[in-house]
Amino acid sequence: MIRVENLHKHFGGFHAVDGASIEIATGSITGLIGPNGAGKSTLFNVIAGVLPPTSGRVTMDGEDITGLPPHDLFHKGLLRTFQIAHEFSSMTVRENLMMVPAGQSGETLWNAWFGRGRVAEEEKALARKADDVLDFLTIDHLTNEKAGNLSGGQKKLLELGRTMMVDAKVVFLDEVGAGVNRTLLNTIGDAIVRLNRERGYTFCVIEHDMDFIGRLCDPVIVMAEGKVLAQGRADQIMQNEAVIEAYLGTGLKNKLKAEGTA
Questions:
Q1: What is the dihedral of CA 52, 42, 202, 153, to 10 degrees?
Q2: What share of the chain is helix, strand, coil (3-state, %, to 5)?
Q3: Contact between residue 40 and residue 16 where contact means Cβ atoms under 8 Å apart
Q4: CA-CA distance, 259 to 202, in Å (whole number)?
Q5: Does the 2-87+166-260 domain belong in CATH 3.30.70.360?
Q6: Distance CA 27, CA 21 (A)
Q7: No. of H helices and E strands in the chain?
Q8: Angle at 150 between CA 144 and CA 156, to 5 degrees
Q9: Contacts (Cβ under 8 Å, ≥6 apart) of 201
Q10: Cα 201 to chain center, whole Å?
Q11: CB 100 within 8 A of CB 160
């Protein structure tokens, strides 16, 4: 589905992404891990059109999407969430979801004045879909809660719900576990797996929680210093000495060796 070829993103003399090439297969839940500063979020931002690449190519289903802006990619079914959730804090959870679909009739002044019946019917349909999404995510009890009052984990679920309002094809999730308690992280994980299996969503997930990555993701791609260091199943990655040293540190590497000889 997504192919990234020899991608570079430079900020002056700093090479945040330095010749990375990855593939995200249709129907997969691909994990992207690596130490802080490895270039993971920058890679996401370039793929999702938030940042232009310095060089390289990104394709989606064979179509060159390199450098397309986020709103164009949104219409193609490619969405990206962020480490810090972006909600409309003064609106309810349901209203946040209803805001997502583009091209709503009520967005034009003409329809607001002369097409009120059509606008009302469209809003009812959107409200029903939002309620179905909230039920799927098991947060329907928060339907009328102001989004600004949600916990960090609930906001991450709301962001996931936004992708369901437009039936996304591929979703890039950036640190869904950041600031989220274990119970809600399990709920988020369950939702991702269900969306993948029941609705055919393709995911690419940045996350530091290796238990979460191991449970959900296959394959797992490891980045370090802007490059792809390794790729494979989570259990293979955890045994890779280069990954252990780059991602987990030489201290843990020596500890694992000591445990293995104990």
A1: -130
A2: 45, 25, 30
A3: no
A4: 37
A5: no
A6: 19
A7: 11, 10
A8: 110
A9: 163, 168, 169, 170, 171, 192, 195
A10: 11
A11: no
Q: pLDDT tens for residues 58-110?
A: 999 999 999 999 999 998 999 998 776 778 899 999 999 988 776 555 555 54
Structure tokens at 153: 């984990």
Over residues 161-180, the pLDDT tens digits come to 989 988 789 999 998 888 88
Domain ranges for the chain: 2-87+166-260, 88-149
Comparing CA positions, the residue from 184, 162, 218 lying closest to residue 30 is 218
CA distance 159 to 152: 11
CA distance 3 to 103: 29
The amino acid sitting at 106 is: G
Cα dihedral value 154, 155, 160, 166, nearest 10:
120
Site of tokens 């843990």? 252
As given in the structure block, the two tokens for residue 252 are 């843990």
